[in-house]
Fold these 2 entries.
Entry 1:
Amino acid sequence: MLKKILIANRGEIAVRIMRAAREMGIPTVSVYSEADREALHVRLATEAVLLGPAPANESYLVISKLIDAAKKTGCDSVHPGYGFLAENAEFAQAVQDAKLTFIGPQPRAIRALGNKLGARSMMSKANVPTVPGGEVKSGSIDDFKSLATKIGYPIIVKAAAGGGGKGMRIVTDEVQLQEAVEAAQREAKSSFGDATVYLEKYLSHPRHIEVQVIADSFGHTIHLFERECSIQRRHQKIIEETPSLALTPELRTKMGDAAVAAAKAASYISAGTVEFLYDSGNFYFLEVNTRIQVEHPITEMVTGIDLVKEQIRIASGEQLSFSQADVKMRGHATECRIYAEDPATGFLPSPGKILHLKEPVGGNVRVDSGVYSGFDVPIYYDPILSKVITLGRTRDESIDRMTLALKDYRIVGIKNNVRFLIDCLNHPEYRAGNLFTGFIDKNLPEWAESETDKELDAAYAGAALAMSGRQVSSTDALPDLENSPWQALGSWEL
Ligand code: ADP
């Protein structure tokens, strides 16, 4: 078993990895930037190493500093989390070259799957269906035009090295094509250092459904069913659930098999996710994410399998302790991502000091959090604060439980998306299960906070500031100014 893990990340995922390692009796080392001296993943750490200044390219993204930190603290392994260097083959290779274990796939698999074009052709060879489309080797705009005509408009221009929703352009007719290709090339070059773009058929009403896979180094590759991730803003997920209402048992098996075939085609080891777009009974390969996903907890809730612990066991050279037949789904899980952002202004990040925080608790309510009362959320990184995950016997129960949990979540002092999430979950179309990737644009286009809620926020902020002469902690009570569903329980307040 691994002896000591350096966690090359921050925020909720760093805390999540720390928790798994602690349960396994494995010590961990946190790393931090100057902006994160007071961060939760540092406060909870028994050992932490300062990497450097706040900008990620001077701290969390500096490979040599991370390797040095691991060496100096006697770590034998590195967990990259998600984001930052998690899908950087050079980092995985540097970790291995330093005689440390990378808790994730082999650099070769990360490299092969990191390029979306390369991954597409690998999947076609493995008979996994891909979205109609392809690249234009000549780079000539006339060839782009004839490929687009062949695919049929609308099309989407995508960066081969893309990620995080960057470098994508939707084009509805030939007139826009040249400008879109050139803009996508420029964005791809500046964001990823590779200007290669390609075309795909733009599916106008798809669901995003992905399959969790896990593989050990003994050739066992299995899947842990799907996650429905269609609720997105700016092509990025904010609510996920499992199982997906769209899948019949036959389709579930077919997609699971396709995901396993995809992982095998890349000789994949560790936990990974095969993403598909689903439209009218057909599914198409999108990409493989070669890391733990933000939304992994919903899979854990329904299967009872701890994916981070499995990653650690696999990296330690152990065999998977369960087979495909052992993996069963129980109930329905929902995850909401809690962001410091303002849904009323196009989801603009809204960092700042959390004056007061009260996180929800309860049976089958899980909160993976990276913040606390009094923490100043830095502007430098992804504004995710936490994730709330609920399990119910049915989809409705899971959503009802989530709604109550979110109503009981109090984040005072910074703008956040909690109320937006409540409205999204309780939209009749969401309840009916009519999900697709354009759901938010269609159903909640002009969402704004009510005047009452704005006043409530100001009152909470005032109350929190009045208390700030003394230590504010999450167990401090703020006066209950609204009809919290838990008010009747009283004891939840102190
Ligand atoms: P990234 O790696 O940048 O996140 P993805 O390829 O995973 O990009 O796509 C992210 C999201 O963009 C998808 O979940 C979907 O909403 C949208 N998208 C991507 N490709 C298509 C397509 N061909 N048709 C329709 N929507 C797409």
Entry 2:
Amino acid sequence: MGSERTLAIIKPDAFGSGRAGKIVAHLESEGFRLVAARTVRLNQEGAEAFYAVHRGKPFFASLVDFMTSGTVLTLALERKDAVARLREVIGATDPAEAAPGTIRALYAESKERNAIHASDSLDNARAEIAFFFAGVELA
Ligand code: CMP
């Protein structure tokens, strides 16, 4: 596969504890190019819309509370096989199950406060980049 774009969100736990820079450096060291970056404070409506696919799940309300609890850093990232590679680099949702050296193994606190989000498919990557960077001309 050729060069792709995907979306990452450095979540309120990692951003609020001053780990955004280390995580961005980790991503760059794995060959991701920063196409766009924006700090965002999501409101309830925005978080519910972003995570609409999880509506109805037992963790949905708590996830929305967490994602609206502080500033996040949204990143549009580019590299070869970006969607699959980013998911490898961030590790499993639950940091207890994340492979050593992955971002969640290094920085996440729990399954919910798990430091970073990544798009799970190319279609979702396009939609999620549009969600945060609509109207922005990407470099
Ligand atoms: P993310 O990759 O952002 O996608 C959905 C998020 O929901 C996930 O990371 C976790 O933060 C959260 N999540 C998924 N499963 C659970 C769970 N079982 N309990 C709590 N939070 C969860």
